[in-house]
Amino acid sequence: MQGMKGKGKMKGGCKGHGKGMKGRGMHGMEEPTKEYAYVREVETGFDETVEKVKEELKKEGFGVLSEVRVDSLFKEKLGLEMEPYVILGGPATRTIQAS
């Protein structure tokens, strides 16, 4: 790379990181364009809906180990307002029990 000196200087003919690679990922590979979303409008409030989702996950054998309120973090850390947004994380408890 231009402007780099010493041990960190890139060598070789890798063109995947260079100019002219618009629309391509590392090493010139096409970036996958996967869209994934499941949208369903409900008449309950956000917090009530999150609790219902956690209950339903539990019924199906999934445990929720973490809950990240992204909207609260954005407000606290960046001073930004956004729609309510939560990330629920955890493994399938039935998989753990089967091990």
Structure in words:
By secondary structure, the protein is an alpha+beta fold. It contains three helices and two strands. 29% of the residues lie in helices and 8% in strands. It has a two-stranded antiparallel ribbon. It is extended and about 40 Å long.
Order of helices and strands: HEHEH
Q: Please report the distance between the alpha carbons of the first and last residues.
A: 49 Å
Tally of extended strands? Answer: 2
C-alpha Rg (nearest Å): 22 Å
Briefly say what this structure is.
With 99 residues, the protein is α+β, with helices and mostly antiparallel strands. It contains 3 helices and 2 strands; from the N terminus they run H-E-H-E-H. It has a two-stranded antiparallel ribbon.
What labels describe this entry?
about 100 residues, alpha+beta, 3 helices, extended
What layout of secondary structure does this protein have?
Elements: H1 46-59, E1 66-69, H2 70-78, E2 86-89, H3 93-98
